Amino acid sequence: xxxxxxxxQDVASPVLIRAFTDNGNIRSVVADSELAALVSAGRVVIxxxxxxxxxxxxxxxxxxxWAKTTSPFPHGTSPNAHPNLNYHRIDDGQIVxxxxxxxxxxxxxxxxxxxxxxxxxxxxxAELMRDLQNRVAGTNFDFDLAGLRTKxxxxxxxxxxxxxxxxxxxxQRLGLITSLSRLSDDFEKGGTTFRTPFGFVDTNxxxxxxxxxxxxxxxxxxxxxxxEEQAIDWKAESGKWSMLLELRATHRLSxxxx
Length: 258
What we know:
Elements: E1 11-12, E2 15-22, E3 25-28, H1 32-40, E4 45-48, H2 53-68, E5 86-91, E6 101-108, H3 116-137, E7 148-155, E8 161-166, E9 174-179, E10 192-196, E11 199-202, E12 212-216, E13 220-223, E14 240-247, H4 248-251, E15 255-256
Parallel strand pairs: 1-11, 2-4
Antiparallel strand pairs: 2-3, 4-12, 5-6, 6-7, 6-8, 7-14, 8-13, 8-15, 9-12, 9-14, 10-11, 10-13
């Protein structure tokens, strides 16, 4: 697991912008065009308060319940062969991956097939994120086999992480990462980090529950080890929880950075 040591002059801050949900859309106090300009320039933007904390907790608990009643996808075979399958799997770092990581992934390839609380909550949050993605990036993606899918990732306390990597800029153009964790309660250290034209950005102190990170999709980024001094407990609900949208066509084009 690589770690980065930087001097103060190398460090930049994310741009924090107040956000809210209005008439079925996530809006901020600045225009979508201004958000797009900031992100295009390489700034990391955090929309503060885009989702209510209660909604995030409800979604997280629904994901936990769903995973407990769903058999995990087995290691040794690729889920890419099952493009409509909703699955979860614990990746404990023992299996070699092109992008080294430790997390519990919950992948929702077919939101429409989810029932009960998990279906209602996952669709509601994902659709709001998709609308924000399309408005700010000028894209027209949907949740289908040619478009987006949704992932909810839990990086456990005790060293959950994702190594530095980079995505193609086109056609997704930007990435969204919604936090389902409360700072200080669910974890202390382990922020999503970015290498930007303005310096190294660590969102650990700024990305709280219900906030959405927006970043230019080709920025090198990672998740720093989460509270690595502790022991991993895969059954705990604590840790760093993130929800993101992933474009199927370019997922396997991501490249690791050393």
